[in-house]
Amino acid sequence: MNDCLFCKIISGEIPSKKVYEDEYCYAFEDIAPVAPTHILFVPKTHIPSAAAITPENSAVVGKIYEAIAKIAKEKNLENGWRVVSNCGPDAGQTVFHLHFHLLGGRALGVMCDNI
Ligand code: AMP
Ligand code: ZN
Q1: What is the dihedral of CA 13, 36, 101, 19, to 10 degrees?
Q2: If DSSP states are collapsed to H, E and C, what string results for the chain?
Q3: How far apart are CA 48 and CA 98, in angstroms?
Q4: Does the active-site annotation cover 38?
Q5: I need a surface site. Which of 40, 42, 85, 104 has the fewest CB within 10 A?
Q6: Distances (CA, A) of 50 to 14, 27, 37
Q7: Backbone angles phi, psi at 70, to 5 degrees
Q8: What's the confidence (pLDDT) of residue 68?
Q9: What global pTM score does this model have?
Q10: Ligand 2 centroid to residue 48 C-alpha, Å
Q11: Are 21 and 39 in contact (CB under 8 A)?
């Protein structure tokens, strides 16, 4: 997966502002934040998107959500927060390594104009 931006961030080849790391996941500040807290959580194994989650690799998603809840608490987001995982072109996915945006620190508004 030499061409994957987030694999390079996980390996340290590309620098990032690390927020959290464990055996399963790596979390870092989004380079273009859209909220006061905007952190990306990625599995350490390369999974292209949520569409590639299978019974064999899905356990990491639970581990990532555990990390998200821990960091949201540490960042004092008690007023609320949102997790977003864009999957595929219609959702605007730009980096094809599964990731979860943790957004918080301001009122986030309606998530989407058609649901
Ligand atoms: P998505 O559009 O859902 O695929 O999200 C990709 C996210 O990665 C965007 O929010 C970008 O701002 C972010 N991003 C791209 N390159 C970097 C980088 N080098 N370091 C941190 N975040 C990045
Ligand atoms: Zn990758």
Answers
A1: 40
A2: CCCCHHHHHHHCCCCCCEEEECCCEEEEECCCCCCCEEEEEEECCCCCCHHHCCCCCCHHHHHHHHHHHHHHHHCCCCCCEEEECCCCHHHCCCCCCCCEEEEECCCCCCCCCCC
A3: 5
A4: no
A5: 85
A6: 23, 17, 22
A7: -65, -45
A8: 98
A9: 0.96
A10: 7
A11: no
Tokens for 115, please give them. 């649901």
Could you tell me if 68 and 85 are in contact, meaning their C-beta atoms sit under 8 angstroms apart? no
pLDDT surpasses 90 at 112:
no
Report CA(115)–ligand 2 centroid distance (Å): 31
Question: How far apart are alpha carbons 100 and 83 in whole angstroms?
Answer: 6
For the purposes of burial, counting CB atoms within 10 Å of the CB of 9, is it exposed (0-12), middle (13-18) or buried (19 or more)?
A: buried
Query: How far is Cα 105 from Cα 115, in angstroms, rounded to an integer?
Result: 23
Separation between Cα atoms, residue 50 and residue 58, nearest integer Å = 10
Tens of pLDDT, residue by residue over 7-63, are 999 999 999 999 999 999 999 999 999 999 999 999 999 999 999 999 999 999 999
